[in-house]
Amino acid sequence: IKMAGDSRFPDVDTDGSEKNEETEIVVNVGGVRQVFYGDNLNRYPETRLAELINCLSGGYDSIFSLCDDYDPGKKEFYFDRDPDAFKCIIDVYYFGEIHMKKGICPICFKNEMEFWKVDLKFLDDCCKTHLSEKKEELEEIARRVQLILDDLGVDASESRWKRCQKYIWKFLEKPESSYPARVIAVLSFLFILVSSVVMCVGTIPDLQVVDAEGNRMEHPTLDSIETACIGWFTTEYVLRLISSPNKLHFALSFMNIIDVLAILPFYVSLTLTHLGAKLMELSNVQQAVQALRIMRIARIFKLARHSSGLQTLTYALKRSFKELGLLLMYLAVGIFVFSALGYTMEQSHPETLFKSIPQSFWWAIITMTTVGYGDIYPKTTLGKLNAAISFLCGVIAIALPIHPIINNFVRYYNKQRVLETAAKHELELMELNSAEGKAASSKSELEDLARDDKEGPFHSSRLKVSHSDTFIHLLSEEKHYRTRLQSCK
After folding, report:
1. 336 and 256 in one domain?
2. Is the domain of 180 the same as that of 288?
3. Phi/psi at 217 (5° precision)
């Protein structure tokens, strides 16, 4: 702001002569000097650089509202901003689009574009993808921090049942919250393993017993162990359902559906055993019970709840549907082509094993996947040549999508580790800032008390400012994302 009698700044020209198309302005951004002409800048008059052309006639108040400093002798505007991002942003005046250089933080670049008042629509689509990915990472970090704070915080206004419900949910769903929660998670893992082992061991004929009708059945000891495991799974599921904050989302979750499929066959088979005999023949009941017992294999998927590696693998496969679809398409085309060729070439042999093209599909599948059972094989020379070409094509087709799938797995695994580290770092920063805020508050309160003692008892009733440990700037104001979250470096 120009002060009265200040000789550092000469009077700014106010005749408006510099508003023409030949106006030249000099901009210094972080030590990088650029010269612009009015005809280029006026293409986008709402941007900050275009406003510099018209600010000279508005005095120093108008100038310093747009820049950090101004040299009237050189007519040079100074900005304390990122010069690398600025070099990318000025492309909009010449090419009508902006490309973000590699190595620049997308969130920082977005903030720079907002400072220079350039709309995000000029950012190229490939660069918008990086920006959206970074936003998703920041939102995920904020969500994790908020979940941790929700677990740590206790709301005094909540009822006793709500607090108990939250405690049970944290106890069963978050093993990292306490030592007893980790013990429960380990026990649940062991029950899953024991139940799976019992299911397998129960099929060994030497360990089975014969009932009164002469039918083989599982050993009573194994049956008791199975009942105990089902009791644990049932209790665990019911407690988690009762304590769930969103019961509809809980019931429709994939892993919880797996839990139901692991528990339900036991109760259905128990019901059929005791009540089904009255409604249908005993043999039909036994077949239904045997079919339901096979469904117990679903409980092995419960291991994914306690294994981050299995969860990462599941996510990688979900992200690799396109690659898996291409693999299946390649194999389907190859199976159809080579089975038809194999059937045609083997028809001349009197002892051919290729009776039809649909029957040849099985041979093509096991050949292209390099399994090769040998139950169906070619006997002619052309048939053997066709088989050789088919398994070579199968090896190539299977190997093609493997690398993208592995990349998806590694990328997701590394991303989860980075997000966990960033969330912990954010919590540490919040604790540090909270401690500094408390120290500053205590110091100011001591100064206020000392001043109140001097001023009199009337002033000692002023309200004190409280500092909340759970206040998160990044969760309440988006503009603090860059300064608070370190993951966007």
Report:
1. no
2. yes
3. -145, 165
Domain span including residue 173: 162-305
Provide the H-helix boundaries in 205-253. 220-243, 247-252
Task: Compute the distance between CA of residue 420 and CA of residue 232 in angstroms, rounded to an integer.
Answer: 31
Here the contacts of 470-475 (C-beta below 8 Å, separation 24 or greater) are 470/149, 470/152, 470/153, 472/142, 472/145, 472/146, 472/149, 472/430, 474/138, 474/141, 474/142, 474/145, 474/426, 475/142, 475/145, 475/146
| pLDDT tens digit sequence for 357-375 | 998 999 999 999 888 888 8
- 111 and 71 part of one domain: yes
Q: How do residues 409-437 score in pLDDT, each as one tens digit?
A: 888 777 777 777 777 777 777 777 777 66
Q: Which residue has the tokens 């470096």?
A: 489
Distance CA 363, CA 358 (A): 10
> Is 452 a domain residue?
no
pTM, full prediction:
0.53
Residues 124 and 30 in one domain: yes
Q: How far is CA 11 from CA 2, 5, 8, 75, in A?
A: 10, 11, 10, 12
DSSP string, 412-443: HHHHHHHHHHHHHHHHHHHHHHHHHHHHHHHH
